[in-house]
Amino acid sequence: MRVTVLGAGTMGAGIAHAAATAGHEVALRDVEESYVEDGIADIADTLSEGVERGKVEPAEREAALDRITGTTDLAAAADGADLVIEAVPEDMDLKKDVLGEAEGHVAADAVLASNTSALSVTELASALDRPERLLGLHFFNPVHLMGLVEVVVAERTDGATLETARSFVDSLGKTAVEVRDSPGFASSRLGVALGAEAIRMYETGVASAADIDAAMELGYNHPMGPLKLTDVVGLDVRLDVLEHLREELGERFRPPQALKRKVRAGKLGRKTGEGFYVWEDGEAVRPADEAVRPADAASPDDDAGEER
User: Fold this and answer.
1) Taking every annotated instance into account, which residue ranges of this chain make up the domain 3-hydroxyacyl-CoA dehydrogenase NAD binding (predicted)?
2) Which of 211, 218, 135 is nearest to 178 (CA)?
């Protein structure tokens, strides 16, 4: 299968990595040459780490990289594609524009997919001439390690599109979970709900970030606590998803003030070096600060007059 990935950031590069490792020919496209180069460099580094750990054979690394072609030309990237996966930032208009342009360069039977974690796939499809050929393929970070792909079926997704998507996910050695298109799907909706409650506990002084995370890691066998996971996902991403779910589903998804404050301060998690933890070389080295004391904590309604 020839796979085109639009967007060479963390998720796009991860998807390209997984597809190439599984034997697919991959075109990785972004709007700037430097973005494409950085994406391919990240893939090469991850594969090299796999070689060092004995998880990847040197020949497999080279073969995977040989299957990836980087470009800034969308028409060239989409030429001959069987599957186009959009992995650009979570902006509805941007995604519609990218998918609409890609549709004009692929065959009528090519499948289009969005890696959105929360936006309506049905609305994305409404901008296309062939909405039945679009669905959601929600991958998880880091893509090469995570075994789940959420397959989001839009209102007009047809059976052939779904079959192609499932076959592709199977080829990656991952498990497909099929969900109906609804706000936040299944994973994002549950994930941000847990993360938001953990942040509220942190900001009202229930426990420190490290202790909240330890409670879920040791008490519920989560591989990563909700606050550390928020840092990995990106605090800005979590805030955007919560704002979207609040608009769609109501006040129970109102973002906590501690999350808003950190985003306003540019403390976005691992990618900026600080969120709820301080990060060095991709590893959390210590909590960024202690939870506020209960006497100083803002009440849940203290932000009622703020702009939302």
Assistant:
1) 3-181
2) 135
What digits encode the pLDDT tens for the residues 52-70?
999 999 999 999 999 999 9
Q: Is 9 annotated as a binding residue?
A: yes
d(CA 298, CA 87) in angstroms, rounded, equals: 37
Contact 41, 30 (CB under 8 A): no
103 is in an annotated binding site: no
Q: Which residues pair with 173 in a beta bridge?
A: none
User: Which amino acid, one-letter code, is at 289?
Assistant: D
Runs of H (alpha helix) within the chain: 10-21, 33-52, 58-66, 74-78, 92-103, 121-125, 159-171, 187-203, 209-219, 226-233, 235-249, 257-264
Check the annotation: does 52 bind a ligand.
Answer: no
Q: What is the model's pLDDT at position 186?
A: 86
pTM, two decimals, is: 0.81
7 labeled part of a ligand binding site: yes
Compute the distance between CA of residue 209 and CA of residue 157 in angstroms, rounded to an integer. 42
Cα-flanking dihedrals φ and ψ of residue 241, to 5°? -65, -45
Does 115 belong to an annotated binding site?
A: no
State both tokens at 155. Answer: 């209102």
List pLDDT tens digits, range 107-136. 999 999 999 988 999 999 999 999 999 999
- Is 174 annotated to bind ligand? no
> Is 92 one of the annotated binding-site residues?
no
Annotated binding residue 30: yes
Structure tokens at 34: 């430097």
CA gap 18, 305 in Å, rounded: 46
Per-residue pLDDT band at 290 (split at 50, 70, 90): low
The pLDDT value recorded for residue 92 is 94
